[in-house]
Amino acid sequence: MLEIRTNVRLVGDAYRRGWRSMFSLTGKTVLLTGASKGIGAETAKVLLGMGANLIAHYGGDRAGVEAVLAGVDPERALALQADFSKPEDVRRLWEQAVAWKGRVDVLVNNAAIFLNAGGIEEDEAEWDEVWDKTMQVNVRAPADLMRDAVHHYKANGGGIIVTVVSWNAQRGSSSPKTIAYAASKGAIKAATQTIARTYADQNILAFIIAPGVVKTRMSEESALVLGGVEKLTADLAMKEWVPPEEIGSLIGFLATGACRHMTGGTIDVNGATYVR
Q1: Which of 76, 85, 119, 186 could pair with 169 as two cysteines, CB 3.0-4.6 Å apart?
Q2: pTM above the 0.85 mark?
């Protein structure tokens, strides 16, 4: 069984390398939030490999984003720090991103926080704190960036937004402790869909990706709520977590605009564990 799965992964890797050579982002400038680890780090590698000029946002992990961009031509990559808990940082991030090349063609909203706290059974002070933090970082900050992006795209002939949410946006969380996280993902999903519906005729495309259990530190933290890694894995249809590079490859494809009429759509990536 292990050999079969290994061979499948090798075929998949070869396939991804092949399609990346068919679709190019050369000359396009992409702002990717949360680029220092997990899905963001793998997405950064994909986008650079497709020829994009990459603005790699990070919150506090400067070393992580430097590792991702190591060896990359400085003309093609720029690391920008912004604390999404501070609205002024979000505004500054967009301004600096546009100033770098004079234009942003694609915004990838990936950055988010997962706080395993502040649930229904917790005290009111913790509840308030977790909801405030989660809504600011996971909803208000990316919504502010999307608003700036829409204004920018309207003035420049269009552009693309890709928002990474979670399957919790559609089915809710399995734990009452993470109700704020699930709600935040549902909210930013709806915001992205609203942009897609409203601005489709102005060549502004907006896509949503809803991953299941991805092999990242955030998912490992989430697994603690659900009985541990082994139990969570056993409940998955494929008995394995989604590799973050698969999400990166999907983001890269959507960023090309090759499938314009998918705008407004939500793409589930969970290995058939949750099928709608």
Answers
A1: 186
A2: yes
Q: Where are the domains of the chain?
A: 2-269
**What is the residue whose two structure tokens read 């917790």?**
122
Torsion sign across C-alpha atoms 192, 194, 198, 200: positive
**DSSP character at residue 175:** S
Residue whose token pair is 């991103």: 97
Helix, coil or strand: residue 273: coil
Options 3.40.50.150, 3.40.50.720, 3.30.300.30, 2.40.30.20; CATH of 2-269: 3.40.50.720
Per-residue pLDDT 10s for the chain (276 aa) are 555 555 556 555 544 555 555 799 999 999 999 999 999 999 999 999 999 999 999 999 999 999 999 999 999 999 999 999 999 999 999 999 999 999 999 999 999 999 999 999 999 999 999 999 999 999 999 999 999 999 999 999 999 999 999 999 999 998 899 999 999 999 999 999 999 999 999 999 999 999 999 998 777 777 776 677 888 899 999 999 999 999 999 999 999 999 999 999 999 999 999 998
* Pair of tokens at residue 110: 């990936």
Question: In degrees, to the nearest 5, what angle opens at C-alpha 254 toward C-alphas 249 and 257?
Answer: 140
Pairing of strands 159-164, 77-81: unpaired
Task: Determine the Cα–Cα distance for residues 250 and 45; give it in Å rounded to an integer.
Answer: 13
User: Is the separation of the CB atoms in 189 and 266 below 8 Å?
Assistant: yes
Tokens of 129: 């704190």
Say how many CA atoms lie within 13 Å of 270 toward its Cβ: 25
Q: What is the DSSP letter of 241?
A: P
